[in-house]
## 1
Amino acid sequence: MNGKVVIVGLGVTGIACARFFKQRSIEVEVTDSRDNPPCLEQFKQEFPSSMISLGGFDEQMLVSANAIIISPGVSLREPALMKAAMSGVRIWGEIEVFARFANARVIAITGSNGKSTVTTLVAKMLESSGKKVAVGGNLGTPAVALINEEAPDFYVIEVSSFQLESTFSLSPSSAVILNISEDHMDRYSSIAEYVNAKKRVIRGYGDVVVNMDDLLTRDLLYTVEPTRRIYTYTLNPPQEGGFGLRNNEGRVWICFDEQLIMPITDIKIPGMHNVSNVLAAMALVYAVDIGFESMVEAVKQFAGLDHRTQFVAQTNGVDWYNDSKATNVGATLAAVNGMGDNLILILGGEGKGADFSQLKAEFAEKVKLVVLIGKDAATIQQCLEGAVEIKHAGTMKEAVEIANAYAVSGDTVLLSPACASWDMFNGYAERGAEFVAQVQNVVKKSGGEA
């Protein structure tokens, strides 16, 4: 690539892209709609001679660029970007840059929910087999930063719909869309548009893994070229050449075809949605010739990720779980389905235009109390009224106190917000950390176990 590159949107991804191009002696400029974007001071220190335009996207800078690298949080519908595109300027995302420069095989994971868990499981399975792995993308390290390291055996990348919108060249050795549920309806005009963004992960020539339990993903069977290998997975008995579950001598086993691999009781992470995640990870690594022994070893050792149905404590017979990463309705439904009855749920935040009425039937059966927090609490209440008792809290501390006051032995308190966190917190991790801190305060007062 020659000429000037303009990075649209700074932050962690933006500065990683700037470093990537600097190492290749390519001129970098930055424009951002914010007056004080993340990583600004760091960028100024590392790139003292680079031009920076803030407080709006600089049209002149953009139309004069050789290429534009767009951060995932910026929509391609921004007028300044549309004008640049009409002028013939290339607009790529970070994953497109990664795809063009990656020097090893790639396994790519997307979906509405479970991406980080499956990405981590895949990496651990590969490592268990002795492979050198670089992990990143939407999870942790930006994908372009991985290329600056010595080439691994595999790149394992988590990719979001936002990242895929501006990706054209990605051709993973194996890829999966784990599931599709309504999300980011504040960005997409329809669920179909959201699905089409996700489908970009299976462009190319590699193997495709298909979730047969998800209505929207199983349709991929009819859209993938017949020359490509497809591996399926399901929570039912497996299809020929696929992964699934079978009963054997009173226990449920993960299987490939007729072959028993491991009982699901050996999986440490709770819920059937996580059994599905394990199946997806197994299919992805089977496609690149990893043996069952390495898969099983990794699964048995994996205790889960923070903020994803993470056990926090037990006090007075009440279990507390942190599922702050549940930022959409589908994720919360999966978490609730994976728990027993007698649930007290802390819910709310920025709803992103979601339809919360999908929660009503499930909550009526399993949830005894909902404590609502955040910007869209009133909207959520309208969708849930008549199905479950509802309380409101202004802070996480108050929400935990309300839940604790209502909980009795045998109950489970679950933070699974079904919303983004930006109205109250600096990300889902901060929200989850605050919940854990408040639960630990309850534990200290009651003498429970953390």
Note: Residues 428-446 form the longest helix (19 residues).
## 2
Amino acid sequence: MTSSTPDAALGTRVEEPARPTAARRWPTRWWDLAVGGGLAAMLVPGGLGAVEWGRDGTLWGMSLVALAITMIGLFALLYMLLGRGVLRRAVLGQSGFNESPPMRRDVLFVVAWVLLQGVATAVNPSFATLQFLSYPMLWSVLQRYRDSVLGSGCLALLVGLGSGVSYVRLGIPEPWLVAALVGAGSFGFAVAMGTWITRIYDRGEAQRQLVQQLQATQHEVAVLSAESGAAAERERLSRELHDTLMQSLTGLVMLSEQAERALAAGKPEMVQDRLARVHAAALDSLTEARALIAHTQPLGDGGLEVTLARVVERLRADTGLDVDLAVGSFSLDRERQVVLLRATQEGLANVRKHARASEVWVSLAEDAGDSVAVLRILDNGVGPGDLGRSGSSGFGLSGLSDRVRAVGGTVSFGSGASGGALLEVRLPLARAKTHSVGGPIHKQEGQL
């Protein structure tokens, strides 16, 4: 497993190994304690312990005490050589760290432990107490339910046979019936507990897998959101660059060309005027660039009406066009005001580049009937031509259409009623967090 940390140099997140938890550092700690405690209990004198200290008697050529201690030693040796590794894999698999089916050594350990349990119970029936370890081992190592039930049956049979042998030797009445009852009771309890715990585990495993799927889905959504956000940011920057710097640079090119023609014609006053305008336009472009980098409000402190007046005045000064501006009084949120500003800049840029017009009318007013703000830019030039038939002029009008649609508005571009070209933008009025736009509308002769 890994964890993410920020990379200060790159501004990204890098994966580093997760710190091991206690469950991974010592996964068999509870098994070690249980096995150690259980085997130690077998050494305790009395009814619980399997070593009958001080008792005489032999079995299979060994004293009962030595034989019982030998059984305990074999349990400990088997656990240390095979059991810890097998149970470690089982614990890690149940924790989701190492999911794999049982291996041959796992089955070998289970078989050896079960056989040793049966033999030890034949030496002393108190060894049956170790079933509290044996059954959980079976259900942990043998992952399939059927295998676990079958293993439990084999263990119950061997413990029952071993107990019967011990009861016969000890002279207990009806030894095989008692042994059968002990074995059947242990088997029934083990299967009931194993079934209950298995169902709990299966539900937990299903939930764990569901969480993993959810995390994977969340990661995928985060990646897609980041990619979508990056694409949207690139598109926004493209629109901003087109609506600000590109138009300003276009004006600088035209002013430079005018200055060159004036210089060639020997008109120093015009050259000086155009150079002064180039300087002013360059300063404005620098301001726009700084605002774009800082992502600040492009309207400035004066609001939309003052900004539109500045844009119109610059067009008048750069081209000599007769431009009329009329701005009505209504409330509009900042986002829509910026859209209207960009729409005005795009419309006037198209007039400058394509219209060959002498007069331009810019009108911004409220259509109270439809509750929309309406921006109209009309000129007396040659008309839209190919632009009108195609519906766009490259990135400019298509980008403007995207920007307007994003706030629920519409864009239309075509021929005016008396000729020329007409750009119309309609935006729904947003009443929340609105700002006043303009003062009372002033219509001049020839305006919309």
Note: Confidence is low (pLDDT under 50) at residues 1-18, 388-394, 440-448.
## 3
Amino acid sequence: MESMQNDEIYPLIVATMAHLSEGVVIANDEGDVIYTNASALSLLELGDAPRKLREIRGINIGKSALKAALQQGEADAAGRPSGRFVSFREVIRTEQGERCVEFKTGTVRCALNSIPLRVLILSDRTHERRYEAFFNHRDENAFITHDIETLNLIERVEQVAPINVPVLLEGESGTGKTRIARMIHVKSTRSTMPFVEVNCAAVPDSLLETEFFGHIKGSFTGAHKDRIGRFQAANGGTLFLDEIGEIPLTLQPKLLRALQDQTFEPVGSNRPVKVDIRIIAASNQDLKTMVQDGRFRADLYYRLAVIPLRVPALRERPADIRLLIDHFIEQVCLRLQIDRPTVTPNALQLMMDYPWPGNVRELINAIEHGVICAVNGQIVPDSLPVDIRKRANSSIRTSPTEQIDRESLLATLQATQWNRSRAAENLGIDRSTLWRWMQRMHIQPPND
């Protein structure tokens, strides 16, 4: 068959790319965009085709592509990318929320000239990323979520876990900081070695030094034999210092030295003990504010916060509440060896509207209470703890904004082009409340 000429095949290629479900962007070697198909504009929520690659949602395409090439073995000894296709993912912020986009990119040479062109193929991986997180609950150390911000946290955990650096976890009580610490340990090179946890708030100040570093026989009244401390018990593994903000200032210099030198002396001894441990610390207090107030040493803070990670409160991830309710009901029923109850719509709504000041820990308690107090195989409002029911009754009496009707809420969303942050601001509420109203009134964004 006679081969087609370039001027004949070009329109065919363009027509094909225009109808692909994946986004396609083509740029020259100077970063000027010369082609963008409709799928790319839709995926990136761009009204007009970008003129430069750097205009694509603020993503540094070149930097991300180079990093991917280095990680995927597509760079030479000097760090120059081969030009073969590599892939990377980026989370972009759009009017409809955050979206996880996979970029596959490489350079090709067009038959019409010898100038290399950069081709980007874009795919929406948001739902895939959520499903991966959902099915990860089979791992006892996994964090159950499909919230974008929390998924970003988990990605960072997986990135830093193999690297032997201190990590500081900050967040309210009950958010899952201990679970995150265990996840870091399990995914680290120390996973077969001990994971030792110390709750600094649960140990009296006078005993903390002995708890950390141990003591020798006769060092104080009641020290009838040598005892190793938690630092030595964790040798080769991970030491998790929970509620690190509770450590008294008088002990912080010795703790700092032990972290820096991996060396300490047990109480009553002047013989140094050498250890090899990784430190993960956690606090429900703002340690930076404590440093400013003189209640926590700055040098210790910066030693602990090499990698600071914030664990979000449950009220900041309202879309996870239903997911966690289902998960914990299943766990409680398996543990108690009872049939799984259903949750009535009214009971579910009470839990969706509750702000969960105790976070996931309080949710687990409420689910256990609800399962045990279920009526005829159903978790009804009266099955739930009294705090949740009282809060619901109080909200009904005192919150006039709850009287908004569906039409008004829908009009506000449409007026802000479904930008939930702006809509919530216009209504004088937070995003989690807006989300709950939308769920209650069965309002879905047009693209969901």
Note: Residues 4 and 10 are 10 Å apart (CA to CA).
## 4
Amino acid sequence: MFKDAVLRYLISDALSLLGNSIAGVVLPLVLLARTGDVLAAGSLALICAVPQFVCGILGGALLDRVNRKAVCVVSDLISALSIALLPVVDGIWGLSFAWFVALGLLGAVGDVPGMTARDALLPEVCEREGVDLQRFVGASQSMGSLITIAGPAVAALLIGFMPDVDALWVTAACSCAAAAVSATLPKGVGAIREQGKHAEAPADSASADSPAMPAGTTATTEEIAAEPASPKAAGLRGLLETGRAVLTDGLSALFADNRLLRATTLLSFGVTMIMASWQGIVLPAYFTQLNAPELTGLFVSAMGVGMLVGSLGYTALANRLSRRGWLTVSLLGMSVGAVGMGMLPDTPLLLASATLVGLFAGPASALLGFFAFDRVPENRRGSAMGTLNALYLIIGPVGTFLGSTLIATLQISTTGLVLAGLWIIVTATALMAPALRDLGDGDSLDDDNSADGVQLEHKPKAA
């Protein structure tokens, strides 16, 4: 189905995701085992959130200045180093909370720009190979679902046969392999356009043929979008100034220029925050309390099974149902599974609920991911994706900290019910949002100043 650069992109992405999925299961368990404090995990996530956000913004600035493929390679190598140092430090001095913070910050330097660079490369690779972007996003989501099945299962197996921290060597190896595969992408992939060509993009993207740049976008926004392509400013000050411009342009691209993109982004934030609570702290703490920490990996694998089936179904049947129909069915299905999870039933029912969430999350993730790529012009993808990933790195830790605070205050059983209630609020808000009623090509979706978009912008935050 896919070949050449697209296949290499998928392999690199799969290796990186495999390492991250293993680490996502192992790290919370290692932290809980070393500190014995539920709030430590939430506090660590929150402490690292702001530096990660800054790295995300500066990474977005760099992506509009330097080769994006090179950023992928270097970032994966830095990530491998930060992970490999954890078992080394644990063996020599023993891991403390301070070490988790220090190495977490080092990992952010690699993870955030690398994640952003991959996102920015995806549409370019598809265009180069003549692959339909919407189909590729669906296929990529299917691959991601397969990895999230294998990764946590491998993590559970590793934890059962070796000290928990030693499982992180596998993550480091995956990051190194991802860097090696990324380095084999064609020479032109990831290269930054010359200034003259770059400057023409905003005018083109503002034409009526492009849904991502509505009519009426101001010249100021276009100038900011083109700024990263100007000659490099010297020193840290120039990079910080560019980072501020990238943040301004990225926020404009995500929230000001297209109300559909704004709505789907906010919906993704709501879902991400709740799932971060579950996966980041609630389930690791719950299964640790049951003296069965390896079940955390099985839970994530169960969700991955559902996502794989759902993503494959969406890839094959995307045109059989309207986008609004896919979104509605997905959100309602996820809500049913979320309520089941919130009740924290016996392990078989809990795994079944996780599978149900994953099943309906597959189509939703592919659809929301398609809008994130499709609605942002090529010349603004570095800043937009950098800002988006940086915001995710704030939303996720906030969710983890929320979960740890709820557990410390209300106990785990009540925390599950609270999270289920929050999920229902996010779902109801999305289904009633006027901006999400028409998900077609949407010639009428350019209305940036409508009250509909303003209403949606506040409700998910309140949730």
Note: The first helix runs from residue 4 to 35.
